[in-house]
Amino acid sequence: MGEGAASAGEPATAGGSDPGREEGAAEAFPILPYSYVVGQDALCRALEIAYVVPAVGGVLVSGERGTAKSTTVRAFARMMYGELPVTLPMNVTDDRVIGGWRIDALMAGRTEPQPGLLEHAGRQGMLYIDEVNLLDDHIVNLILDVVSTGLLVVQREGLDRPEIPLSFTLVGTMNPEEGTLRPQLLDRFGLLVPVAAEPDPIVRREILRTVLRFDEERARPSSDWLDQGAALDRERRATIAAAREAVHDIRLDDDTVSLCAHVAAEFHVAGHRGEIVMAHAARAVAALQGRTTLVPGDVRAVAPQALIHRRREAAYGDGLDWTDKDQDRLDKVIDEA
Fold first, then answer.
1. Distance of alpha carbon 22 from alpha carbon 285, whole angstroms
2. pLDDT digits (tens, 9 = 90+) for 20-45
3. Where is this region: Disordered (predicted)?
């Protein structure tokens, strides 16, 4: 496929609309329906987890180009919010990110604040950064500070605004062939999902069929296939939104807390964010599956994405892959706990 969560309450649709048939197929479906995405189960699960429990802290997607990273993120955003995500340009400046003064007002002798992209993301629900590893570190740091604190503070060039509460899901993608993030920044992303070209020829065939059919159906004035995709997306959105409400009733038991700490210690991860993210994400998995209690399998499902970028190897640009050996080690720790 081509390249290609959030404020509290029901999924936002501000500024967008539910895919419908009043428009032509191409206009109504600018991106493949989320329910038709093939071969990105791990990424889809991470995006859903981050939406259900925003405290997870966002998702970083690492993989070579042409692996549908951006397609999947945009399809998810359109399903949950009714529009594509707020996207940070590569050469963005500080004032475009956090806000500044309106240039046209200044030229007219007036001072009017100009909201930045972070405030737009707070209203829409998601901030998407493509090639986040190529962004200036101080811009990434600024964004991650807002994500972790939930507050935007603007104090610059005579502009001193009160703290602005913001909540959105941060999603970044990067191609590790072009460099990675510093360990301090990697650690600030809750989950990391490695993606690669699909090795299974059967799955590759299904990806190709889906892409070709999407291009064909979008060229039609109307499309039952795309309508069905929109209906499936509405059902999935309702399930994810219900999980977000239900997760507040899922309590972390002592066994799960101990298991998260034990797994993090076994993999020698830096700091303590690994086990914190693991615990939050495990609750989200249970909620998405309609359960009110946690099982060891919930930790098993999220541990790789919570730990992979916090291992010591990641500090040297290596280790952003979860190997069979890593999985065997995880299985042994959980089974013996």
1. 36
2. 334 556 667 778 999 999 999 999 99
3. 1-24
